[in-house]
Specification:
The protein is α+β, with helices and mostly antiparallel strands. It is built from 2 helices and 2 strands; from the N terminus they run ββαα.
Length: about 60
Amino acid sequence: MHDVVFRLPDETLLFAGCARRGRMVATVGEQRRWHPWFGNTSRDAFLTRVASLPPRADERPAAH
């Protein structure tokens, strides 16, 4: 996102693969300001946040 999408102008339209809050389109500027994962953060802050997440359910060892 940071290396490709956020280098585009704010008015560039992004079409979602799934609807969030019923919206299928947003601008780069909106995403830059409001996206909970990518917006208003640096690439390093994003990578730190991702690294702190627990493993995905399909990657965890079986309980039994």
